Amino acid sequence: MMIPRPRHLARLRSLLEHNPVVAILGPRQVGKTTLALTCMKGFDGPATRFDLEDPDDVARLAEPKLALQDLRGLVVIDEVQRRPELFPLLRVLVDRKDSHDVSFLVLGSASVDLLRQSSETLAGRIAFHHLDGFATDEVGTDKYRTLWLRGGFPRSFLAPSDTVSARWRREFIRTFLERDVPQLGIHIPAITLHRFWRMLAHYHAQVWNGAELARAFGVAATTV
Predict the structure, then answer these.
(1) Would you say the C-alpha torsion 68, 73, 78, 83 has a positive or negative sign?
(2) In which element (H, E) is residue 16 found?
(3) Residue 128: phi, psi to the nearest 5?
């Protein structure tokens, strides 16, 4: 089952009309690839996709300039954070005289390095679209309880049962804390961040008391 995301799709198409490079940013499993594939299906012209987690596509980009320079239409590069050296090449390609014949859609998990390099290298050429989880207008107001309990990540929301959804969320949180948070420049042990998250959840909808959390962690309230 796939839930349409017309609001995000319309925004993405609008950005592609006015920018040679568009980046979809967001956490893993939020639906970036699905949105890009939907955009490709409705694109008026040729569309090519590279997935940098696919060894075959990685091999196709062994010589990136040769692979990309003759492509036209929409070119999608998924998991672009794995090849940050592609950004200078994209600048060269979109600055060509015939660059209006091609648009690049790059997908990646938000990270400090990715945002900095793409913004600096492609300044004035790139636009960003941040993709969040499902919202009420996408799943329907009759599903708001499920959305509240399971969250907006597609695999969690669409799981066949609450048990499967909870299991997916636990694994996702573990992976997020161990792999993705360090890419944001936060170098705190995963087990400490996990405890912190659980405490924040416990205090949800209560008056904020940073001092109490600080005492539990043995740090200053400003650090919390």
Answers:
(1) positive
(2) helix 6-18
(3) -115, 140
* HSE-up of residue 209 (Cα within 13 Å, Cβ side): 10
- Pairwise CA distance, residues 46 & 43, whole Å: 8
For residue 50, what are the CA distances in angstroms to 80, 94, 107, 113, 130? 9, 18, 10, 21, 20
- pLDDT tens, 104-127? 999 987 666 677 777 788 888 999
What global pTM score does this model have? 0.83
- Residue among 139, 130, 132 at smallest CA distance from 158: 139
Contact between 80 and 107 (Cβ < 8 Å): yes
Cβ count near 110 (within 10 Å): 17
CA 199/CA 6 separation, integer angstroms: 36
Angle at 97 between CA 94 and CA 99, to 5 degrees: 35
Name residues whose C-beta falls within 8 Å of residue 132's C-beta, 6 or more positions apart in sequence. Answer: 26, 30, 152
Measured CA angle at 217 (ends 214, 219), to 5 deg: 55
- Please tell me the distance from the alpha carbon of residue 103 to that of residue 176, in angstroms, as a whole number: 31
pLDDT digits 0-9 by tens, 161-186:
999 999 999 999 998 898 888 877 78
Amino acid at 190: A
